[in-house]
Amino acid sequence: MYRQFEQASNVEPCLGCAARVHGICGSLNAADLAAFAATGRHRRLARGQTLMWEGDAPALVVNVISGVLKLTNVGASGDEQIVGLVWPADFAGSPFGAPMKASVTALTDSEVCLFARAEFETFLDTHHDLALALLRRTFVALDQMRDLMGMLGRRSAGQRVAGLLLALAKTGGVETDRISLPLSRQEMADLLGLTIETVSRQLGRLSDDGVIALPDRRSVVVRQQDRLAACAGA
Amino acid sequence: MYRQFEQASNVEPCLGCAARVHGICGSLNAADLAAFAATGRHRRLARGQTLMWEGDAPALVVNVISGVLKLTNVGASGDEQIVGLVWPADFAGSPFGAPMKASVTALTDSEVCLFARAEFETFLDTHHDLALALLRRTFVALDQMRDLMGMLGRRSAGQRVAGLLLALAKTGGVETDRISLPLSRQEMADLLGLTIETVSRQLGRLSDDGVIALPDRRSVVVRQQDRLAACAGA
DNA sequence: CGTGACATTGACAAGCGTCAAGGTTCGTGG
DNA sequence: CCACGAACCTTGACGCTTGTCAATGTCACG
């Protein structure tokens, strides 16, 4: 009785969690959620804080509640390549023990749920619904990754920048036209495989053409969605 | 008794299947494998044959036994972008009903196992081990995809071509130095985000430098692995 | 032997990276 | 509250890498 109450109190934050609707924990019933929540812990990350490093043995897996994280590789010449963004309700980590192929870093101040990898794996083994939910999410992540690859393939700098803005508007976006950028110019460049100068110039050009406005460095207002889509060229 | 015998006869090809060691079906015991095999069918594909089209409702999922398939998107200007390769024991398809984001086409003559999506999903729902095996594979596929993205990011044409050759040597490769290319020059270009001319020039340069030899258009001999790795630059 | 797909090679132009010089924003400390 | 410095961003000039266009070469198949 006491135990059940304790569990219920553990679950409480989960029940109001924004990520639960689409996150993998949404697959669990109340009792399992209680047990699951007991294995995880909530944590805040400041912008720029790195949770796991490329090459690490993966001790943790992460479920994002709010904010945006990035997955990065460092190239031979010390330059950083962003290989993925992790949005609320998304999952990151290497649940089957393979060494981390990317570092995980907060792009914005964020809230996450952390789980010890071993415990998470046990939970996966014993909770079929959780495994299926994670499988679903992973397939979605694969599709998104392929979209991103299309962006890096045979596309001009202008198309890449426009495409990124559209993607940010869609993913991060509430219904407003104002995008709050989770990425700095340098990070956009690292994601798109361009230089910071080229990103800056392309944004400038879009702004000069009246397609977007740049009220401050961390915001973009989409003025002409159709023309922006045309610039993205796909 | 009769039924069991029939199942066993169904399974027979599976037991000798090269893909089973690493494929998702390797997670199944004899009885489940029999039921699984009964839902799938074996099929040969000729080079160039397309199994599923971008945008299709996904009726099938595929497990590759031999050969190599490609996943492609077509851009706005009709150009083709390859967003992934599917090797033996790999899995392709959209098991949760999302429309296909890429076409699936055979790069070489291939053998595959096909499953009706609905039946496959039922099997996933009822066989936890299969779900976990597929989850493992999908995480590996995600990591590979990120490697590929690193290749398309901030890397020169020469680095991309060298990197692709190394990847092919590793993945497709037996212990020999001779790589049998599953890709035409055009397909290499589509994969690397380059033009066919640039790919050709880079291969020519590597050949002139003695790093590789090009005995015929579908083969590459790696003469100096270390220098090739240096050219790949990561 | 001929025909068509595929690949190589060359000349040229443009897009983007590189280098360099300002300009803006933000936080920190006087 | 202002001044200063550091991080971040923008803008310009220039050159290299790569795409484009075009011609030629080579292989596979009828």
Oligomer: homodimer
How many helices of chain A in DSSP terms? Answer: 8
Mean pLDDT of chain A: 91
Run of helices and strands of chain A:
HHEEEEEEEEHHHEHHEEH
Q: Segments of chain A where pLDDT lies below 50 for 5+ residues?
A: 1-9
The greatest interface between two protein chains, and residues involved on each side, is: A-B, 44 and 44 residues
How many β-strand stretches of chain A?
11
| Structural class by secondary-structure content of chain A | alpha+beta
- Largest sheet data of chain A: 4 strands, antiparallel
The percent of residues in helical segments of chain A reads 40-55%
Strand % of chain A is 15-25%
Span from first to last CA of chain A? 58 Å
Strand arrangement, major sheet of chain A: 1-8-3-6
- Net shape of chain A: globular
From the alpha-carbon coordinates, what is the Rg of chain A to the nearest angstrom? 19 Å
Overview of the structural elements:
2 copies of one chain form a homodimer. Chain A is of the alpha+beta class and 234 residues long. Chain A has 8 helices and 11 strands. The first copy, chain A, has a 4-stranded antiparallel beta sheet. In chain A, strands 2-7-4-5 form a 4-stranded antiparallel beta sheet. In chain A, helix 1 packs across helix 2 (30-39), helix 5 packs across helix 8 and helix 6 crosses helix 7 (196-208). Chain A starts with a helix and ends with a helix. The model of chain A is unreliable at 1-9 (pLDDT under 50).
